[in-house]
Amino acid sequence: MPLFRYQAIDPTGALIKGEMEARDGGTVIQRLQDQGHMPVEAEQVLQPDSPRSGGLGLSLPFRRGRVKRQDVTLFTRELAMLLKAGVALERALAILSQDVGGASLGRLVQGLRRDITEGDSFSEALANNPRSFPPIFVNMVTAAEASGTLELVLDRLADYRERAERLRETVIGAMLYPAILITASIVSLILLLVLVVPQFEQIFENAGAALPLATRVVIGIARTLESQGLVMLLVLLGALLALNQALRLPGFHLWWDQNLLRLPLLGALLRQLLAARFCRTFGTLLANGVDLPLALELSRDVASNRHAVEVIDEVILAVRQGQGLAQPMHEADILPGMAVQMLRVGEETGNLAPTALHVADVYERKVEQSLRRLFTILEPALIIGVGLLIAGIIVSILLAVVSVNDLAF
Question: Where would I find the Type II secretion system protein GspF domain in this sequence (predicted)?
Fold first, then answer.
């Protein structure tokens, strides 16, 4: 059914704006008049084809674009605020479809409102957009609709998403500076070897002096980079591409993820990150009425480690068989020991949801501290390492210069 954007004057003389689905503009005007308003304008809004419209079904991915995570979080927060203020869901979606930032999000909200007016529940409308609303979102809204606590659950969902985004930004931000430092260091070394060292090589050849071993090694590396640099780059890119393809194989990907968790420093950090993400999702789901097996199933999906996913599957099976949570989680050995012990206490006291959220708080802080500590050590180590390499190149050239001068005298 077409969507119309209208303007009208209400009985108090105030100008009102909104959107309405109707067969034609005359129907919109008639409805406005029935509501006691004086219609001013009724204009049809051009929209991409709906999946239900009988079109080719290609409009969603190609026209709508991908909605940002932050935009979905903002929409969730604002929708919760409107519902708390007593605004009906359909009316709240109509307001947000005009006020939210970004054309893609606006079209997404319009699609949600359209699905609801066609008879879907809010959770069903969300499920029609899996790229923007993951299963955890849909299941929490389903539980909220059943319990009549939609505004409260949306508020908690917004909190959950904001914390998850903050953790993600912390990890990315901590890795950004070392990545830039490593890249700049490698480029500097390559430029020094390819552009500077060959200039001195020509001078040394003209002098005819026997060069020290260190100088010959540096010149050999420079020649190799100059003549075989492109080949070396292609080999490196080929190796990365081969690794990427290998990670698509379930067996290799499982082996890779399993061994990542065993690395001395990185493995401990990955376990802390897994504990923070898993417990935040798990606790949020339990707190909003999702049953234990389903909460575990949905929380498993946030684990980016395939080994962790398979192990959590075994935990879910044990829970369904009545073994409880703590013991299977201890045997799984994917979360830090302290996290498992705290979950055990929460299970025994009947406070599993708040305990899981507390564990998430603890390990989010631990991740931040571990990243800060790791890169506090890594950054000066990188600077010193690059400095030593550059100093070695310079010293090798100076040794050759001294040799040439000794020959001249």
Answer: 75-198, 278-399
List pLDDT tens digits, range 236-249: 899 989 988 888 88
Asked if residue 8 belongs to a domain, the reply is yes
Calculate the alpha carbon distances from 151 to 81, 95, 371, 408 in Å. 7, 16, 36, 87
**Higher model confidence: residue 83 or residue 11?**
83
Amino acid identity for residue 66 in this structure: R
- Cα dist. 246→7, 254, 266, 309, 320 in Å? 58, 11, 21, 19, 34
User: In the chain, what percentage of residues exceed pLDDT 90?
Assistant: 3
Report the chain's C-alpha Rg in angstroms: 31
Question: Is 29 among the domain residues?
Answer: yes
* CA–CA distance, 75 with 97 (Å, rounded to integer): 9
Give the number of domains in the chain.
1
The chain-wide mean pLDDT, for the chain, equals 80
The per-residue pLDDT for 257 is 85
Distance between CA 340 and CA 326 in Å, rounded?
Answer: 6
Mean pLDDT within 52-56: 36
Name the residue range of residue 9's domain.
3-44
What is the sign, positive or negative, of the torsion defined by CA atoms of 72, 74, 78, 81?
Answer: positive
The dihedral built from the CA positions of residue 318, 320, 323 and 328, taken in this order, carries a sign that is positive
C-beta separation of 100 from 72 below 8 A: no
- Among positive and negative, which fits the CA dihedral 292, 297, 298, 301? positive
Residue type, 321: Q
Per-residue pLDDT, averaged over 41-50, amounts to: 55
Spatial CA neighbour of 335 closest among 267, 264, 285 = 267
Q: Is residue 309 part of a domain?
A: no
Region at 405 (left for phi over 0; alpha for psi -120 to 50; beta for the rest): alpha
Look up residue 192 and give its DSSP letter: I
Report the pLDDT value the prediction gives residue 117, as an integer from 0 to 100.
87
- The predicted-structure confidence for 215-232, as pLDDT tens digits, reads as follows 888 888 888 888 888 888
Q: In what order do the strands lie in the sheet with 15-21?
A: 15-21, 3-9, 38-45
Q: What is the pLDDT of residue 15?
A: 62
Which runs of consecutive H residues, i.e. helices, occur in 35-134?
Answer: 59, 69-84, 89-99, 103-117, 122-127
pLDDT in the model for residue 250: 81
Supply the pLDDT for residue 229.
Answer: 80
Q: Diameter of the chain by CA atoms?
A: 109
**Residue 211 placed within a domain:** no
